[in-house]
Amino acid sequence: MTSLNVPLMTGTATNPLPSLRFDDVAFRHQGKLLLGPCSFTLEGTGPTLVMGPNGAGKSLLLRLAHGLISPTQGRVSWLSAECPRQAMVFQQPVLLRRSALANLVHALAVNKTPRKTRLKLALEALARFGLTSCAATPARVLSGGEQQRLALARAWALSPSVLFLDEPTSALDPAATKAVEAAVQEFHERGTRIVMTTHDLHQARRLAGDVLFLSGGKVREHTPAASFFNAPTSREAQAFIAGELIE
Amino acid sequence: MENNNALYVALSLVLNLDATLYQIVTLSLQVSLLAVLIAAVIGFPLGAAVALWRFPGRGGVIIALNAMMGLPPVVAGLTVYLLLSRAGPLGEWGLLFTPSAMVIAQVVLVLPILAALSRQKVEELLGEYREQFISLNMSRRRMMPTLLWDARFALLTVLLAGFGRASAEVGAVMMVGGNIEGVTRVMTTAIVLETSKGDLPLALGLGIVLLTLVMLVNAGAYVVGELTRRRMG
Questions:
Q1: How far apart are CA B172 and CA B177, in angstroms?
Q2: What are phi and psi of A225, to 5 degrees?
Q3: I need a surface site. Which of A7, B42, B127, B213 has the fewest CB within 10 A?
């Protein structure tokens, strides 16, 4: 691991992870209730894994949390003086039609990082995610795994205190998945609050600190990972873990 | 054969480096390229702005831009003529029957094409990038240069469409330029003149030269665009 000369590092006792609060949050589209109403607080060290079957509202919940969309009811808020710096990694990485390096430099420029340090930070982030040899390669001709790593590198360069990941490995092979999970661990160790959706139980077991379980647009359970996997309380979670087909 | 004759005229004009032809071709290219350049500097940001911002009357603006793509050159010419004529609001500039007037008229013709088509392209790209942009906390103003740069391949094609329109039209440059020999005579107006004089071989010859020039510009842009596009994936 190379050392990174960036602010906002390490979640220590003096610098706790920002807590996220959902207050009676619901989202309706064309009159149809898609999520909630739900209330919960994401605190502790995480990582928080948002789990549930397809269509349960996982991605929606993540977008509401990140502020990409606004709830039609209730309030999403951070229990900190100011809104923490956030980044998101999507299922399909959205990369600009430029080189891998230019993608990172662009994100840093948007982030108002001083011009002098942009290139250095971008190269460091590429190196950290094993993409140095791809620096000049157009981002959109990289392989799926490399593209996702580039999206992670972009998030890393921005040194967010919260990172959202929406099914980041669902389109990847096992090797690429492993690389993404290692990256998520690194973010976690750096003191970044991780909120990640997945429908992969094994992945959740490997990564989760706590689990937020959704089905049918409702939060059925929010418990520490150990109790979720060993003794789920809700009927839906029990069925999900047992591998039954639930809706 | 009339046709062979015209080809022969065209070839001999080009091969003999005919001074008049050279002057006409140069002016044609200067006027049209400058007009497209000015229209791009205004039209691309305008198109991107319409794609990015929501404001009352936005639908009307889009319809107007789309409709203006079909603006008849003579109408554009007439409008610029009225503006620039001695009694017109900009008469003091004394631009009527100069190459500048022709540039202005062609900008009026090309601008709607560049603005309307770039609006479409940028809006498509925005659909793909939107969530990432919001995630990066980008303002709309900050999105504009990013989108325009990332749409560069599509915009190159748009630019060619604009250049095609500018180099092919005759009505507007005829009205505001006046087809003055050695001053405002361009390829299209020269073709009209030679046809009306009955020198059909020369008119056809000029037509062949014009067509070749337009094709060369398009081929050059296509090759550049295609090579970079392939490289960028």
A1: 8
A2: -55, -45
A3: A7
Residue A190 in contact with partner chain B when CB distance is under 8 A: no
H or E element at residue A9? none
Q: Would you say A186 and A218 are in contact if contact means Cβ atoms under 8 Å apart?
A: no
User: Residue A165: phi, psi to the nearest 5?
Assistant: -130, 125
pLDDT higher at B9 or B167: B167
Which of chain A's residues have a Cβ under 8 Å away from the Cβ of B146? 96, 106
Q: Does domain A47-241 have CATH number 3.40.50.300?
A: yes
pLDDT at residue A6, as a whole number: 41
Give me chain B's average pLDDT, please.
Answer: 91
Q: Do A68 and B131 touch (CB under 8 A)?
A: yes
CB atoms B232 and A67 under 8 Å: no
Residue B61's Cβ-count burial label (10 Å; 0-12, 13-18, 19+) is: middle
Its pTM stands at: 0.87
Q: At what angle do helices B140-150 and B19-52 cross, to 10 degrees?
A: 140
Would the CB atoms of A67 and B129 count as touching at under 8 Å? no
What pLDDT shows up at residue B4?
57
Q: Kindly compute the dihedral angle of the four CA atoms of residues B210, B213, B215, B216, in this order, to the nearest 10 degrees.
A: 170
Contact B231 A138 (CB under 8 A): yes
Mean pLDDT by 10 residues, chain A (247 residues): 42 68 93 90 90 90 94 91 90 94 96 93 94 93 93 94 94 90 93 92 91 90 90 87 70
Domain span including residue B150: 23-187
**B229 CB neighbour count, 10 Å cutoff:** 15
Q: What pLDDT is stored for residue B27 in this prediction? A: 94
A147 touching B (Cβ < 8 Å): no
Q: Where are the domains of chain A?
A: 47-241
CATH for B178? 1.10.3720.10
In a domain, B143, yes or no: yes
Residue B134 belongs to a domain: yes
How many domains are there within chain B? Answer: 1
The pair of structure tokens assigned to A237 is 């979670």
Q: How many CB pairs under 8 A join A and B?
A: 46
